[in-house]
# Entry
Amino acid sequence: RWFSNRRRQRKLSDAEFDKVMAKRKRDGNRRQAMLKTGSDEQRQGVVDDLLSGDIDIGRQACGIFESYVVRAALKHGTPEQRHQLVDAVLNIGPRGSELRGIVAHKFGRHVVRSAWVHASRAQRRQMLDTILPRVQSFAQEQVGRFDLTHFLEHCPDDDDESYRALVGAITPHADDLVCHRHGNHVLRTILELGRCLDAAQGIVDSVIHSTEIVDLADDGYCSHVVRAALQHSTVAQREAIVEKLTPHMATWGSHEIGSHA
# Structure
């Protein structure tokens, strides 16, 4: 969007615009190659350029070509360089307020995913300040569901605090998400990961108390949540689910989805 605005302001012709875009692509490919195969000095040069360039890191994170450079720097840079880049992504704008825009941007969200993988525990907690208030809307979007799944799957084993914070923010919305096409996938991920399940018992309870539990068990997407709830629940919860499903088992043929639950 920022580049489109600049194009309008500068009144670029189609030929001029294509020329600028081709240059950006060449620059992006060159910098990615330097990050992958260059020396430590060359890598540091690219990172310094990202951090001190004419275009701030927030805009680069949302650029069609520049976002790949930022992601490559996070992947191939040294631990210190990665820390610098994550800090830059977190602290753009007043109090990092622009991070909300990057998380929702089609290119920027990939940078946020990469930053999550390489962030320190303190940086991850800072990212959660932006992510947690939006978990319900994330879970109800196809791309947002991939974001949440990524955050859950790539939360380090030694950072249960961040993982529990994510699960704790998602669980209150379980009643709405369990029947949602994309939201149920997020719930299934939490159960199937089998981590900190004491924090996820509210998800199993939402399956048990759902008035549509039979429909859930017979749905191509939601049946996975029911199966995960059966596998990762307490004895009492498992018995409650079986009790609700048993009267309907005779009506499910071996070929039907519900029979797999």
Q: What stands out?
A: The two ends are 46 Å apart (CA to CA). DSSP finds 18 helices and no strands in the chain. Confidence is low (pLDDT under 50) at residues 1-5, 254-261.
